[in-house]
Design a protein that fits this description.
By secondary structure, the chain is an alpha+beta fold. Helices cover about 15% and strands about 35% of the residues. It has 12 helices and 38 strands. α5 crosses α6. It starts with 17 loop residues before the first strand and ends in a 7-residue tail after the last helix.
Length: about 650
């Protein structure tokens, strides 16, 4: 496809910069380049000294491929096509695969059955088929003594009823759907078996809570068949617990935000608990997916962990005896999927100049080697002069508060703009909304900045990475605080003379799409008039419909974000669909036809309401896509269409010549 934004020839970075208006610079980062670079890294695993990871490949229709790196350092696909290691538990999945002694166990996306895969390359189903892939599995562990896979199962077999979530045990020899060992809570996650196999720890929570608002840590005795003497040992109302793990000497550790920050705790043999490294930093994450890991044990006395402090992620070695934290010197600012074995650490890492990468680190020396990196990142030398580095900004917002964002100024070594002119601005609203802007290289952002368009990725109140109090700013105020903060970020940059206030647009996906639409339909004209156009990628427009139609995991999320569904007025007041008459700027909509989280019907109602009023509207429906686009040609088409739409509807004003 042609690039709709390129209007002048690509400049030679070694030559004198070509003078051209902001927003018209030619860039080597095409939509096709972005789509091909959107290989995602879903997980990193260690099996002894072998490194494994799961790649999501847009060029294979989003197939999730388990890759094994041999001891000789050669990577190879382990899960054969058409199998895809992806689970639909909670719809967002995670924890789809694990490896034990050279054998992989994974949930296959098409049928959601659990499979065993050895060196012969032939997947063997452990669980029976179900109509409509009604049984889903994830977040498992292998009990080698008893030859069991123990993990989360989500049961959709009862038509018209809410799915049932359990912890089950599946025989490694196969033949059944799993024996239920924990039942009765709305949600379960993170089963962890003690080193001696006699105790099981797990997380549980119930409606209307989400795991980042009130998840509980439980502990019970396990005999291979049943769990007895189950006791809640942490978590509950006002406390979120994350990632229980056993140390090699049999002490249970976990992350809790009881201090106001997700910190690491140890439970001693006498039942007492210690915060092993008290900090105003986040050692945990919002558990949108299963199988998340921010720390791993090196020994009974040391572990490796990642944490976010002042908006920046770090990876460090933690001495559990005295709480000494020793950060590794690495050129990365985001870490996840932390694994350790035999003094070796494997981790997913990313930074401003590097997209998602698999690193292996010697825990003793800190020496790091790059095992794998997403294609098209900073290692492509043709992009070196076209990468914008994020600048963390803090800006004033409503209620006398401050909020945070990552600002990306235009960057292209081959171009400069006419003196005295300012760039257009794309305001990005992250999804979740309990999530955060990413500092890792994202060519979708660089697509804009390399063309002379600034980007600000807003960590509005409610975002993660800044402590529980910051997250709770959004409690009952979704559509208020987030909208105010996004408009405040745009105004702050315009008032500081960094962007052109006449050419500010807003875009977001999922919950971020709701925030974008909320800004454009806001009751305060000062907010909605900040933006000259907008885009919603599978975004929410009808809050009541979302509460009624969405999947189990998020079905009561709005109780926390907005209020009980009985408060019909709040749901009406904040739903963009019910205030389409306030929206007077062009809007583009991008939607997956198979989206179960935000069904196409929501987007189509909004589109119809705007078209009835004659508002310029673009609507693209993508067959075969769900909540988020995974196929390369659809990623490419959506980005090109959004770029052309913004250029035509918001960026194309008369510019001063050079």
């Amino acid at each position: 496809m042609s690039d709709p934004v390129v209007t002048v020839p690509v400049a030679d970075p070694a030559a004198e910069p070509v003078c051209a208006p902001f927003g018209t610079w030619a860039s080597p980062i095409t939509a096709e380049h972005v789509a091909s670079a959107q290989v995602t890294l879903a997980d990193v695993l260690l099996d002894g000294d072998e490194v494994w990871w799961i790649e999501g490949r847009p060029l294979e229709a989003g197939r999730q491929v388990l890759v094994r790196r041999s001891r000789a350092g050669v990577p190879s696909d382990f899960v054969p096509a058409p199998f895809s290691a992806r689970t639909r538990v909670h719809e967002y999945g995670g924890g789809a695969a694990l490896v034990s002694r050279g054998t992989a166990y994974f949930s296959n996306f098409a049928d959601q059955r659990l499979y065993r895969l050895g060196g012969d390359g032939v997947p063997v189903a452990l669980t029976p088929p179900t109509e409509g892939a009604a049984l889903r599995y994830g977040d498992g562990l292998i009990d080698t003594r008893r030859r069991l896979w123990i993990g989360a199962r989500e049961d959709h077999r009862a038509s018209g009823a809410e799915a049932i979530n359990d912890i089950v045990a599946v025989s490694l020899d196969g033949g059944d759907a799993g024996r239920v060992i924990l039942h009765g809570r709305d949600f379960y996650a993170a089963p962890r078996l003690s080193p001696d196999g006699t105790r099981l720890a797990w997380l549980a929570w119930d409606h209307p809570d989400m795991p980042w608002t009130a998840a509980e840590l439980w502990l019970g005795e396990f005999d291979g068949t049943t769990v007895s003497n189950a006791t809640r040992i942490a978590g509950g109302a006002g406390e979120s617990v994350f990632q229980p793990e056993w140390s090699p000497d049999g002490l249970l550790h976990y992350v809790s935000d009881r201090s106001g920050w997700w910190n690491l705790y140890r439970r001693h043999a006498d039942g007492s608990h210690t915060n092993v490294c008290p900090m105003a930093a986040e050692f945990g994450r919002a558990q949108w997916s299963l199988g998340m890991s921010t720390y791993a044990f090196l020994s009974a006395h040391a572990l490796v962990c990642t944490y976010v402090e002042d908006g920046v992620g770090r990876l460090a070695r933690l001495d559990l005896r005295d709480g000494t934290l020793d950060p590794f010197d690495l050129p990365y600012t985001e870490f996840s999927a932390v694994r350790a074995s035999g003094g070796k650490v494997a981790v997913k890492a990313g930074g401003p100049a590097t997209a998602a990468a698999v690193l292996v680190i010697d825990a003793a020396t800190g020496a790091a080697s790059l095992v794998w990196c997403a294609a098209g990142a900073a290692h492509d030398t043709s992009l070196r002069g076209c990468l914008s580095s994020p600048q963390l900004i803090e800006f004033p917002t409503s209620g006398g508060n401050s909020a945070f964002a990552l600002f990306y100024p235009p960057a292209n070594a081959g171009f400069c703009a006419p003196q005295g002119t300012l760039p257009p601005l794309v305001v990005k609203c992250h999804g979740g909304p309990t999530s955060a802007a990413s500092r890792s290289l994202d060519l979708r952002t660089q697509f804009w900045t390399s063309r002379g368009v600034a980007v600000v990725d807003v960590d509005y109140g409610g975002s993660t990475g800044y402590g529980r109090a910051y997250r709770e700013r959004l409690k009952g105020k979704w559509g208020l605080v987030d909208a105010q903060d996004c408009a405040a970020a745009a105004s702050y940059l315009a008032d500081a003379g960094r962007v052109d206030k006449r050419r500010i647009v807003i875009t977001g996906g999922s919950a971020g799409g709701f925030t974008a639409l909320r800004c454009l339909t806001h009751e305060d004209p000062a907010i909605r008039n900040c933006f000259k156009a907008g885009a919603s990628h599978y975004g929410v427009s009808d809050l009541s419909a979302l509460a009624r139609d969405t999947h189990k995991f998020e079905s009561r999320y709005l109780d926390w974000l907005v209020g009980p569904i009985s408060d019909a007025q709040a749901y009406f007041d904040r739903a963009p669909l019910h205030h389409a008459e306030r929206l007077n700027v062009p809007v583009a909509f991008f939607q997956g036809a198979e989206d179960r989280i935000v069904p196409p019907s929501q987007t189509e109602k909004m589109v119809s309401a705007l078209r009835a009023r004659g508002i310029p509207t673009l609507y693209l429906l993508f067959a075969g896509e769900q909540h988020g686009f995974r196929q390369a040609h659809n990623i490419e088409r959506a980005l090109e269409a959004e770029a052309a739409f913004f250029k035509a509807e918001a960026f194309a004003i008369a510019e001063r010549s050079c």
